[in-house]
Every structure is written in structure tokens, then in C-alpha cells.
Amino acid sequence: MNQSVFLYNPAIKEMISKWKYRGDYCLGDIFKESFVQTFKTAFGNEINDSIVVPIPLSDERLLERGFNQSAMLADYLQVEKKEILTRIHGEKQSKKTRIERISARNPFSLNAVVSNKVILIDDIYTTGATLRHAATLLQEAGCPKVSSFTLIRG
Amino acid sequence: MNELTPFDPHSELTLALRYSGKLLLRKEIPLDHATFQQLLNQQQFIPHASIIRKFSGPKCNRCNNQKRSLFGIIPCQICRKQHLYCRKCIEMGRVLECESLYSWQGSKPDWLSHANPCSWIGELTKRQKLASERIVEAVTNLEKELLIWAVCGAGKTEMLYAGITSALKKGKRVCLATPRADVVRELLPRFRQAFSSVHIQGLYGGSKDNDGTAQLILATTHQLLRFQAAFDLMIIDEVDAFPFHADPSLPYATSRAKNETSTTIYLTATPRKMHRKRIARNNLAHIFVPVRFHGHPLPVPTMKMSLNLRKSIQRFLPPNHFFTWLKNRRTPSRQLLLFVPTINLAERMGEKLIEKLLISEDITSELDLVTVHASDVNREEKVMQFRNKEILILITTTILERGVTFPSVDVAVIDAGHEVFDEAALVQISGRAGRSIDDPDGEVVFFHDGKTDAMVKAIRSIKSMNRRGGFK
């Protein structure tokens, strides 16, 4: 169950690439208000017994970028954030085809058990492969409910 | 470079060639960690602070940005601290406060002294020759600066060849910097033909061949942010152009990219006030080339006042006078270049004009009229089509005011009184007409609803250049 704030279009694409790939950290704040508002509308009644879990970057990618855009988005929300996922370094999702993404092996591992409902946070939902991998792990570990919330639906 | 040495990416020679005269971020230096550390320990690479905080505020040592508003704060996951990064030059790769900039202090590369680098075969006109010889003189005598004031269509590229040749003969390194990537792409094949034995690279955002190891480099001005004390001859094309004069980091980058004893040649058809003042005070050497290469005068614009211009523009149409003029052009076979002040107007007017001109049978198909502007992804393609005469009418913003040549066009400016059309822009726009030896004339019309200083001065300046060229 995924919900998003914006649909992907050329203008958003440009902003995201400047923010994420060029590393213009401040640009994230442009999305803050809409992100928080839409989140409240989408998860209003579940916020109290949920935690948010941002999709992690691999250590290599984090050193390259200097910040994790998903964690930045998660920080905007007035909900407890737990960074319990880690990611094995691999190819960038954005460089893969649809088939490659869906058939890739799970790049995540879980380093804590959670009993709360989880809302996964990421910047872009394209094929949903990334979020499904993360959700599978959480469900197998006994998480009662996993949803996801992204800034953009590609 | 000696052709016989096997290529070793870590040889002294290769490193010197690749890194000498640069100022780079670690991620712009494609060496593995161990090699890089070793070179750092041997002090072949020297680290420099990338962002310094002075009493007056922060300063980026790559682009000289000192505006507080153009620095961002990032909770950095690399060094686990909150610190600054520069937003002004972020398009060239992000400068973080916790990372250094590196310059090469190892051995210097030996640039070839070419015996006979110039393979251009062609004749210069008398006027071009004078300028060409003056440039050679400046290069030979290590003069600091020289401004070439050459009218639109004077053939300035060819005037440069002799000066570049004499620099290459002495084993000097040469850079031609221009504000636009279009121009780099247009000049690169011409230079490769004119200097067929010389290693030449074109650098612009997204260029493939971008390690900057060539002796002769054509680059957009932004690319010079990666250079430091590299060039003996620096040629600055369109020195009056946006964004060069509007962005202080560009003159900064250009002057840092020069060696201590270097010659700088400025090229312009419309010198700005600063340069005119320096010329008048005799503290900037210059030479004026008042005649186009084909020996014909510059087309002088006419002004057409339309009191209903505002109303027409609100309906995204040119004024009625424009349609009258279109019907009565002296040479109806010429293509038409139509300048409008804004992107929005260009797009909307494009749609409306297609409808209207199809009805009046001025065009036969909707493909005859095309709109182009700066944020248009198909810009290059459309310009090519217009150049190949596959399009009759091209509506454009000031993006095409300079640096592009269409052989045979009439030019109209809609709302010429708009503030984007300053004097230099109007002179450049008028300079798009009559560029070809086969059709050395063209009509230029300013449609307006009230004369501006810029219009009057542009026309006065064109007339005065013609007078100086010996035309009545």
C-alpha cells in the first residue's frame, strides 16, 4: 500500500536531480510542507501507533552524497523514526531496467525487531521493487503492518 | 608527447599532463586511494581549503562566491558535522567545507612547440589581416590584454588563427572561452580542421572528452572553474555577453586560469561601458574591425510604432503593422527570424501565428513555423533545421541573439522596447541579417509602442560602425 505526494514530471525531475544527485541538501525543504500535509491526510488515524523507517543508502553511496534523502524526508514527519534497515552496496536503482529491478535479490538486511506498524519512507516509487524488498523483510520479522509513503510516484 | 612510450596512467608524464594547471575536488581525480595518498605525501598534490570563513562571511575558494545566501548548511554524514557547502558552483560538483581542493605541484608538462600547426587554407580580407597581425604582435610581445572590437559577421574566428599559431609554435597553451556550449560545439570542428595536427578538446557541461589535457582548449567559461595557472594565451569570446558580465565568478575563474605571464584577447561586437571607458582612457589596447568579411555594410534597423502593440500581445499576436510588413517584404524568399521578449510569449505566439498565417497562406504547413527558447530540449535540432532552410519562420527569445549564423534571413523584433532588449542585444540581433556573401543584406524591423534609449542607441551605433567602415 503506497501513497505519494507528487507525480513525476520534468520540473520535479530537475529539482530531484539537483537535490539528490548534485547534492543540494537545502532543496529538500521545498517539499517539506506538502510532504507533511499529505502524510497527515494519508495516515491520519494510524500515526499514533506507527513508526517511520527511511529506506537506507549503502555506506558507499552515503559517503558519496553526504546525506540520505529518505532520512531527510522522514525527519520532517512528527513520528518516531527508526533506522533499522541497512543496505548492501549495488548498482543504482535508477540505472537499472524494470526487469532487473524486480528480479534483483533483496539488498536489505534488518538489524532490529519491531512490533509497531511501519511506514516506509522513500523519495521515488517507480516499480515498487525497493519498497517491496524492505516490506518483505519487515513482514517476515513479524511486523503487524507495513505501508509506504513516497514523495514522488514515477 | 612521445608516441612510443607505453601509456601508464601513473607515469610522471601522464600525471603532469592530467593534473597540472587544475584545481580539483577529490572526486574529479580518478586515482585509487593508495596512489593518491602517496602523491599527497610526496607533496605532488597540495590540498587547499575549499571554503574559508572570514570575518566578513564565508568564501568558496573554487568560484569565489561570498554571498551568504548561496551557501547551504548540511549535516554531513561523511565527517559527522554540520557545515557549509557552496550552492553557487554546485553544477560543477559540490564543494563541501570538509573536503579540500587539490592542485598539482609535481613536474610541469612540456607542451609541444609545433613547427607548423596551422592547416587552414583561406584568405583574410584587408581588415581581418590588420586585426590578425595585431593579435600576433600582442602574443609575441607578451602584452597583457587586447580587445578586438569586430562587427557582427566580421569573421573573427579566422582572425584568431595566426595568433594561436604563433603561440603554439612557442609551445604555449591556449584556451578559447565562450559563454555558450552551442559555440564550443560549432567551433570545435572548425578548429580541428584549422589545426589538424594539434590535440584540441572542447569542454562544456556534458562533453565526453573532458579530462582537459589538450594544448588547445575550447571551453564554456564555467569549465574554467577547474583550472588554475594553466594558459599562456586566453581568448575570451563575446566578453560583453550574459552570463559573463553578470556573474562575477566567471571573470574570477578566467583570470585564475591564466599563467602569470599570459596574453588575454577579448572579442566583442558590442563592448560594454567598462571596456569603452578603458578604451577611451587609453588603458586598454584595442583594434576595431568595422567591416563584415563580405565587404557590405551592416543592415540598419527601422522602427515601426504600433499603438495597439499591448493589445495584440495580450492576445499573443504581433501588431497589425507586422502583417503589413510581412506581405510587403522586399525579398519574400528570405527566412524570417522573429525575436520576442519572453519564453511564454514565444510559445503562445507560435501557436497563434501558425493558425493565422495558414489562413492568410503565408505558410503552407504548420511545420513551417517553429518556436525555440533556452529551456527547449530540441533547441539544437531546431536551429539546425532552420539553418538547412527546412523551416520558414523561427520564433525565438534572445537565446539566438549571438554566436549563430543563418545565411539569409530578415529579422523582426516584437516589443523591441522590452527591457530584455538592451542596446547590445539589439545590435547583436540586427547582426543576424545579411551574413552571407550571396545575400549580404536583410531587413531588420523593431516593432514597438514607444522608442527606448536602447533602440535609439543601437541604431546610432550600427550607423556609426558603418561610417567607420567607410560607408555613407
UniProtKB/TrEMBL annotation, chain B:
<dbReference type="Pfam" id="PF04851">
    <property type="entry name" value="ResIII"/>
</dbReference>
<dbReference type="GO" id="GO:0016787">
    <property type="term" value="F:hydrolase activity"/>
</dbReference>
<dbReference type="GO" id="GO:0005524">
    <property type="term" value="F:ATP binding"/>
</dbReference>
<feature type="domain" description="Helicase ATP-binding">
    <location>
        <begin position="137"/>
        <end position="289"/>
    </location>
</feature>
<dbReference type="InterPro" id="IPR014001">
    <property type="entry name" value="Helicase_ATP-bd"/>
</dbReference>
<dbReference type="InterPro" id="IPR027417">
    <property type="entry name" value="P-loop_NTPase"/>
</dbReference>
<dbReference type="GO" id="GO:0006302">
    <property type="term" value="P:double-strand break repair"/>
</dbReference>
<keyword id="KW-0067">ATP-binding</keyword>
<dbReference type="InterPro" id="IPR001650">
    <property type="entry name" value="Helicase_C-like"/>
</dbReference>
<dbReference type="GO" id="GO:0006270">
    <property type="term" value="P:DNA replication initiation"/>
</dbReference>
<dbReference type="GO" id="GO:0006310">
    <property type="term" value="P:DNA recombination"/>
</dbReference>
<dbReference type="Pfam" id="PF00271">
    <property type="entry name" value="Helicase_C"/>
</dbReference>
<feature type="domain" description="Helicase C-terminal">
    <location>
        <begin position="318"/>
        <end position="472"/>
    </location>
</feature>
<keyword id="KW-0238">DNA-binding</keyword>
<dbReference type="InterPro" id="IPR006935">
    <property type="entry name" value="Helicase/UvrB_N"/>
</dbReference>
<protein>
    <submittedName>
        <fullName>DNA/RNA helicase</fullName>
    </submittedName>
</protein>
<dbReference type="GO" id="GO:0003677">
    <property type="term" value="F:DNA binding"/>
</dbReference>
<keyword id="KW-0378">Hydrolase</keyword>
<keyword id="KW-0547">Nucleotide-binding</keyword>
<dbReference type="GO" id="GO:0043138">
    <property type="term" value="F:3'-5' DNA helicase activity"/>
</dbReference>
<keyword id="KW-0347">Helicase</keyword>
